[in-house]
Amino acid sequence: MIELKNITKSYARGRVKAVDDLSLKTEPGEIFGFIGPNGAGKTTTIKMITGILTPDTGSVTVGGTDMLAEPVKAKRLIGYVPDSHDVFDRLKGIEYLNFIGDVYGVPEKERRERIEKHLAMFEIADAAGELVRSYSHGMKQKLTLTGALIHKPPLWLLDEPLTGLDPKSALALKEEMRAHCREGNTVFFSTHILEVAERLCDRIGIIYKGKLAAVGTMDSLRTGEKDATLEQIFFELTE
Ligand SMILES: Nc1ncnc2c1ncn2[C@@H]1O[C@H](COP(=O)(O)OP(=O)(O)O)[C@@H](O)[C@H]1O
Ligand SMILES: [Mg+2]
């Protein structure tokens, strides 16, 4: 679903190399967890997959479509939830969702079904008529998630989606991620919660200082001790 070939991205006129020659491929039907310390380059990588940032070198393909060559076609495949939730404060929740629905050209019936399903799942249906300004951080995140899924994208690209969610909503989201992949779709998400990554993901990528330090199933990541936890593997590779 996603193919990254030797992507590199620097900030501050090349003084900060955030992502350094990273290559990665995900398969349809898999949940891929992207972990790494703060500043490792997770968000920068995710933003390059969305097309928000253009790599200095290398290429990004989503569903076989090159992001640089055909950005709109590639972006249609993606449901992206950023790590910060700067949603339009002056809109009501439902207005925001309908705006996103319009952008993606989602027909009325499908739109209503998906909105209702996710608002109920995240228990924010009652707040849909309120201004986004009055939402808590977690509520904004739930609204952003609902908006990101409105066009039924095959690829979910989630930057720390579990941070800030209450336990019930986190569980609901994890179940949704699984269900999405069972239908042959792909979820690519970053997280700091190693236990979740360990249990939920089919494969895990560990990024450290902009480079992919390791990638594979939990079993294949265990090169030393045969029942090492992801936490142990993580510290071995990043210290
Ligand atoms: N807009 C920016 N300008 C300058 N440096 C940045 C910017 N965004 C990120 N960085 C730097 O790039 C590196 C990777 O950041 P980021 O991709 O946000 O990492 P992560 O999401 O893994 O915490 C860090 O050193 C960070 O300080
Ligand atoms: Mg980040």
Fold and architecture overview:
By secondary structure, this protein is α/β, with parallel strands linked by helices. It has helices at residues 42-50, 71-75, 93-103, 108-121, 137-148, 167-182, 194-200, 218-221, 230-238; strands at residues 2-11, 16-25, 31-35, 57-62, 65-66, 78-81, 155-159, 186-190, 203-208, 211-216. The strands form two sheets. Strands 6-7-8-3-9-10 form a six-stranded mixed sheet, sandwiched between helices. The chain has a four-stranded antiparallel sheet with strand order 2-1-4-5. Magnesium ion binds at residues 42-43, 83, 159.
CATH second-level architecture of the largest domain: 3-Layer(aba) Sandwich
What is the strand tally?
Answer: 10
The unique ligands bound to this protein are:
adenosine-5'-diphosphate, magnesium ion
Described by strand count, sense and barrel closure, the largest sheet is:
6 strands, mixed
Helix content: 25-40%
Low-confidence stretches: none
Fourth-level CATH superfamily of the largest domain = P-loop containing nucleotide triphosphate hydrolases
Q: Rg to the nearest angstrom?
A: 18 Å
**Mean pLDDT across residues:** 94
What is the string of SSEs from the N terminus onward?
EEEHEEHEHHHEHEHEEHH
Distance between the termini: 31 Å
Helix-and-strand structural type: alpha/beta
Tally of distinct domains: 2
User: Based on CA inertia axes, which overall geometry fits?
Assistant: globular
Strand order of the largest sheet: 6-7-8-3-9-10
Query: What's the helix count?
Result: 9
The CATH topology of the largest domain is Rossmann fold
Strand content: 15-25%
By CATH reckoning, the class of the largest domain would read Alpha Beta
